[in-house]
Amino acid sequence: MKAAMFRTLNASIPIDVHYGDIDYFRKRLDFTWNTEDFNGLPEYIDWLHEKGMKFIT
């Protein structure tokens, strides 16, 4: 997710929303995230919010 966000920002493409997908869920359960593959997700979402962006699942 971070790589996609930074590629977009580096290309000077305006962005204000980042969408998550079911892949980040733990065992595809709602209200969870896979802490192995998406370590640091809460901090990343906080960073997006600090930059005025939204995160949608």
UniProtKB/TrEMBL annotation:
Keywords annotated in UniProt: Glycosidase, Hydrolase
Gene3D superfamilies linked to this entry: Glycosidases (3.20.20.80)
Glycoside hydrolase family 31 TIM barrel domain mapped to chain residues: 8-56
SUPFAM superfamilies: (Trans)glycosidases (SSF51445)
Any one biological process term the GO annotation gives: carbohydrate metabolic process
GO-annotated molecular function: alpha-1,4-glucosidase activity
Transmembrane spans: none
InterPro entries attached to this UniProt entry: GH, Glyco_hydro_31_TIM
Keyword field contains Nucleotide-binding: no
Key word Protease present: no
Family of this protein: Belongs to the glycosyl hydrolase 31 family.
Protein name: Glycoside hydrolase family 31 TIM barrel domain-containing protein
